[in-house]
Structures are given as C-alpha cells and as structure tokens.
Amino acid sequence: MTSLPTFPLPSPLAAHWTLDPAVTFLNHGSFGACPRAILDQQSEFRARMEAEPVRFLTRDLPGLLDASRERVAHHAGCSPEDLAFVPNATAGVNAVLGSLALQSGDEILTTTHAYNACANVLRLAAERAGAQVIFAHMPFPLESEDQAVQAILEAVTPRTRLALIDWITSPTALVLPVERLVRELEARGVDVLLDGAHAPGQVPMKLGELRPAWCAANLHKWMCAPKGAGFLYAREDRRDLLRPVITSHGENTRRAGRTPFHDRFDWPGTLDPTAWICAGAATDWCAGLFPGGLAEWMARGHALAVEARRLLCDAWDIPPPCPEAMLGAMATLPVPASSRWEWPASERIAPWQTHLLERHAVEVPFFRWGSPPRAWLRVSAAPYNAPGQYAYLRAALADD
User: Fold this and answer.
1) Residue 1 has pLDDT above 50, yes or no
2) Higher pLDDT, 174 or 348
C-alpha cells in the first residue's frame, strides 16, 4: 500500500460552505454546493412562505422573482425579458423540444458528447415526429477547437432543423467555441439550443451578444444557487412559441407589466420557489467573493483545474487530452487501460470510485463514455478546493 500524505485541507474559503470537512470533495460539477449565506436566506424565505402562504405566493412572489431574474440576467449578459426560471437545464431543453413543431424527415443535430438526459429528450421528440437525431462524432482527445467545429458543421444537412450544442460538455469537460458555432449554424439556417448546464460561473455568457435561439442553464452548479434553480434564455423571435413543460394559469391569465413568456413560466403550480428567489443573490454572492468579481472567480477555477490535470496526467504518464484553453473549472482524463481499473458493465458506479470514498474520503466522479465505452475521471475546481487536495487524490489513485 502506498504511503499517503496527510489528509489535505481545503481552501480557507471552504468555511463559506456546509460541506463535510471529513471528505475531500472534488465533484462540484455534478450538483454544485450552495454557500451557507444563501442557504440561510432560503430558510428565511421558506419561513415567510409558511407563515402566510397566500400572501407570499400570490402577492410577494412576482416581485421577488422579478428582482432575482434581474440579477441573474445581469450576470448572464442579457435582458430580464429574455429569461424565465426553470428547475434545471434539462427542464429547459424539454420545454424547447416540446414546443417545436418537428416534421417527419427533420433532423436534430447534437454531438457524441451530449449529456445523456438531454440526448434522451431529443430522441423522444424525434420519435414522436418521425424525425431523426444526428450525433456528430466529435473526437476526444482533441488538439484544437477547430476539430470540434469541423465535426459539427460537417454533420449539418438541408434537413437540420435544430442543433443542441453543449457550452461545456458534461463527460469530457470541454468548453466549446459557441460563438463560432452559433454564428456558423445560424448562417446555415439552423436554430441553436445551447445546453449551458455548466456555463454560468465557469465562462462569461454574454447571451445578449451571442444571441442563440435558446439557452438552458443551471444556476445550482457553478453559480452556487440552491438546488432547483435554472433558467431558459429565449431570443425575442423564438419566444412566443415556447411553452413550459407544465401548462398552468399563465397560458390564458395575463398580468399587467409581464410578458406572455414570463406568465407561462413563472407559475407552474404550487411549488417551493425559494431556489428561484435566491438565485439572484447567489450570483451576486459569487461575484462578490473575490475583488475581481466573476472574472476572478472563473480565472481561479480555470487555473486550479489546469494544475489538477497536470498532476494527474503526470501520475498516469498521459498527455493532456485537450488544450488548456478548452478548459473551464473542470478537467476530464482517460483512466489507464489495465486490469487494475476494470469496471464491470453490470455496475453503475466504478468500484474504485466507491473505494476512494470509503477508504480515502475522496469524492470524485468516474464516467463510462465513448464508443467503445471506456472509463474517464473528471475533477472539479471550486473556490473551496486547494491544490493539496489533488495531490492527495493522485496518491490515493496509486494506493492499492
């Protein structure tokens, strides 16, 4: 058995979170982690709601949603009129695909790096309409963003109706050149739906300049909002056709000063809306953590992810699978092909992932991905992480 270094301390900033100090948590990318201050605020809103539910949900809620949406829109680089709250990015993708009048013979384009849940939405929508999902075979490892762009554009045909493009891919953690892709695809008459599940808090969004047809994004991941906070951006010429997954009163009940877009999405029925209400405060909190605002937040995450990847690539003696410029605050590496890393097809979770948690108190995800499928490791770099935690992971991976 390898002699492991002393259990690593996280960043001093970890005091802002409620994460278990006995676990080295390197998986912010899966579900995020909400800071204590925002959780406290959410508890206060919940107490207000339960003290007088009618007043809170019918009188107070619209203004609270408007205020939160304004802050989120500011950090997303667009107008509040462009955004509606949804529970998560997958819900936003469902709303767009459920609103499109696809025809038999239409094609929906995505990549082999697409998030499985969203790929399932495409498959179901295509099956119902007699359309077809086309998966552009984007390589990984890759040497440049040009390879990603080429793979996607070569898969476009005259029948391509929509392209679902991951801003940051989930299994491979690639930051795709969405500015180029939106421009090139729109020029070919293809509407673009960006899956921005990992984008807020990892990359500058500037949606008002980028102007895709739609963008579905999470706020509970890298913007550290409570679970259940996401948004759907819709360009003004692609807004009226949209319907939420849940049809409710807003379909035929209009409010003064609100758009049909907001009327339809703001009230899906009785639910706990406090994650949406706190989303604006969470984005402000993230922006205020460092003197340089969100730009510094993103730069620190990128630098730490690059350092973590270097340590692990050196440990496994493998080259980096993509340029540093295509990383945000996550990095994915191939697990060495050897008997030591066997992963039975019958097991959903890799045995060594469980081993790392139970034996070394390290929480880090492994994925089975690709064709043919193989194992990959993805590390996240959040403000509460520190370089020593990745050195400890490196030693733990070498432990028998």
Assistant:
1) no
2) 174
Kind of pairing, strands 24-25 and 230-234? unpaired
How many whole angstroms separate alpha carbon 70 and alpha carbon 28? 26
**Domain check: are 282 and 316 in the same one?**
no
Q: Does the pLDDT value for residue 65 go beyond 70?
A: yes
CB 306 within 8 A of CB 324: yes
CA 352/CA 200 separation, integer angstroms: 31
Q: What distance in Å separates the CA atoms of residue 134 and residue 131, rounded to the nearest whole number?
A: 10
Tokens coding 85:
């709250």
Render the burial of 11-24: b for 16+ CB within 10 Å, e for the rest. Answer: bebbebbebeeeeb
The answer to whether the pTM exceeds 0.90 is yes
Residue where the block lists tokens 């730069």: 299
Arithmetic mean of pLDDT over the chain: 96
* Cis geometry, peptide bond prior to residue 204 (ω within 30 degrees of 0): no
Q: Which tens digits make up the pLDDT trace of 320-330?
A: 999 999 999 99
Exposure pattern of 117-150 as b/e (b: 16+ CB <10 Å)? ebbebbeebbeebebbbbbbebebebeebeebbe
pLDDT at 3: 65
Of 11, 24, 28, the C-alpha closest to 394 is 24
Strands, E, within 53-103: which ranges?
A: 83-86
Containing structural domain, residue 392: 12-17+292-398
CATH number, residue 369: 3.90.1150.170
Q: Is residue 2 part of a domain?
A: no
